[in-house]
C-alpha cells in the first residue's frame, strides 16, 4: 500500500504540473492534463474502495472478538447496528441556526467561568457550515478548472479575448458607419489609403470624361481653381453623388457606396494644383482652396 501511494503521488505530481510551451514531452499539454484528471479520479475511487474494505474488515474483526467473548449473534448485531434514537423534529430555523432548547443548556456548559459568567459550547450554525464547505468545494473546482486543466480563462487571457472581440466589433461598426456619410457629414481627409481607394474608383469611372489625371476632357478640369458646382468637399461629394444630368454627368449614388463616394471626392480634392499637361481651360467660378463659398450646392 505504501508503494502504491508513492506511485499515485508521483503520477499526480507529473501530470498535474502545468506544461510549458517549451516542454519536449511526447505528450501534449492537453493530453497530460486529461491523463492527470484520470489519475486523480482513479486515486479517489481507489481511496474509497480502500476505506470500504477497511470498514468491512473492521466489522468482521469486531464480530470475531465479540463472539469470542460470548456475545450472541443478536447482541453482536445490536452492537454493530445500534437502533437510532428518534429525536423530536426541529423547526426549520432551529436547524438553520443550530438552536438548542433551554433544558439542554446544562449539557452544553463548559467547565470554566469568569466572574459568575458561564460559557455554552454551542455548535456552529448550519448556515455557516454550508458556506464554509461550499467555499472549499468552490476553491477546489476553481483550482482544477482554471489552473490545472485550463478549461476556463484566467484574467489575462480573458482580457485579451475581450480586446480581440472589441476590435472585431469596432471594425464592424466602422464598416457600417462609413456608409452613413452624406453631403452634410463628409469631411476632407488626406489619408493615403483613402486617396488610393479614391484614385482607383476615379480611374475606373471618371477618367473617361475628366482624364486620368483630372486634366479635363469632356468634363471640366479638376486640378485648377475653377468649379462649376462648388469646390469644397461637401459640394464635390454632392456633385459626384447626384451628378449633373443636364450636362451629361450621371449620378453615382446607385453604383457607389457612401464610403466610395467620399473616397473619390477626397481624391478629386487632392488633384488641386497638380497642373497636369494638356489641361482643359478653366470653367466656372474661381474658388480659393480651403475657403468655404456661400454658393448654394448644386441640386439634383
Tell me what the structure shows.
It is a single chain. Strand 1 (109-114) and strand 2 (117-120) form a beta hairpin. The protein is mainly α and 300 residues long. Residues 15-23 and 292-300 have low confidence and may be disordered. Among the domains are: 2-20 and 27-80; 119-153; 192-286, Orthogonal Bundle (Cytochrome Bc1 Complex, Chain D, domain 2). The strands form two sheets. Strands 1-2 form a two-stranded antiparallel ribbon. It has a two-stranded antiparallel ribbon with strand order 3-4. The longest helix is centred in the N-terminal third of the chain and has 40 residues, at 29-68. It is built from eleven helices and four strands, in the order αααααββααααβααβ. Helix 1 (2-16) runs antiparallel to helix 2, helix 8 (192-205) packs across helix 11 (258-270) and helix 10 crosses helix 11 (258-270). Helices cover 53% and strands 5% of the residues.
Largest sheet: 2 strands, antiparallel
CATH C-level name of the domain at 192-286: Mainly Alpha
Strand order of the largest sheet: 1-2
State the distance separating the first and last CA atoms.
94 Å
How much helix is in the residues?
Answer: 40-55%
Rg result: 43 Å
- Work out the strand percent: under 5%
* Gross geometry: rod-shaped
Q: Helices and strands in order, then pairings?
A:
Layout: H1 2-16, H2 29-68, H3 73-80, H4 92-97, H5 105-108, E1 109-114, E2 117-120, H6 126-148, H7 155-177, H8 192-205, H9 207-210, E3 226-227, H10 233-242, H11 258-270, E4 285-286
Antiparallel strand pairs: 1-2, 3-4
Helix pairs in contact: 1-2, 8-11, 10-11
Amino acid at each position: 500500500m505504501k508503494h502504491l501511494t508513492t506511485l499515485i503521488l508521483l503520477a499526480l505530481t507529473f501530470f498535474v504540473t502545468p506544461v510549458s510551451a517549451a516542454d519536449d514531452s511526447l505528450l501534449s499539454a492537453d493530453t497530460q492534463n486529461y491523463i492527470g484528471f484520470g489519475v486523480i479520479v482513479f486515486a479517489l475511487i481507489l481511496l474509497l474502495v480502500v476505506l470500504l474494505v477497511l470498514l468491512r474488515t473492521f466489522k468482521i474483526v469486531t464480530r470475531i472478538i465479540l463472539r469470542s467473548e460470548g456475545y450472541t449473534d443478536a447482541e453482536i448485531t445490536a452492537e454493530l447496528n445500534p437502533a437510532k434514537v428518534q429525536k423530536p423534529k426541529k423547526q426549520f430555523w432551529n436547524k438553520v441556526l443550530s438552536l438548542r432548547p433551554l433544558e439542554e443548556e446544562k449539557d452544553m456548559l463548559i467547565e470554566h467561568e469568569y466572574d459568575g459568567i458561564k460559557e455554552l459550547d454551542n455548535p456552529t450554525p448550519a448556515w455557516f457550515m454550508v458556506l464554509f464547505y461550499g467555499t472549499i468545494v468552490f476553491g477546489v473546482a476553481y483550482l482544477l478548472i482554471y489552473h490545472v486543466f485550463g478549461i476556463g480563462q484566467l484574467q489575462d487571457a480573458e482580457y485579451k479575448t475581450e480586446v480581440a472581440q472589441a476590435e472585431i466589433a469596432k471594425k464592424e461598426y466602422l464598416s457600417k458607419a462609413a456608409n452613413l456619410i452624406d453631403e452634410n457629414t463628409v469631411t476632407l481627409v488626406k489619408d493615403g489609403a483613402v486617396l488610393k481607394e479614391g484614385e482607383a474608383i476615379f480611374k475606373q469611372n471618371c477618367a473617361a470624361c475628366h482624364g486620368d489625371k483630372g486634366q479635363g476632357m469632356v468634363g471640366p478640369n479638376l486640378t485648377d481653381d475653377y468649379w462649376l458646382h462648388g469646390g469644397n468637399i461637401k459640394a464635390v461629394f454632392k456633385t459626384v453623388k447626384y451628378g449633373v444630368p443636364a450636362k451629361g454627368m450621371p449620378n453615382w449614388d446607385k453604383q457607389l457606396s457612401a464610403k466610395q463616394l467620399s473616397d473619390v471626392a477626397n481624391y478629386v480634392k487632392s488633384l488641386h494644383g497638380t497642373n497636369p499637361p494638356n489641361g482643359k481651360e478653366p470653367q466656372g467660378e474661381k474658388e480659393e482652396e480651403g475657403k468655404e463659398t456661400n454658393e448654394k450646392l448644386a441640386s439634383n
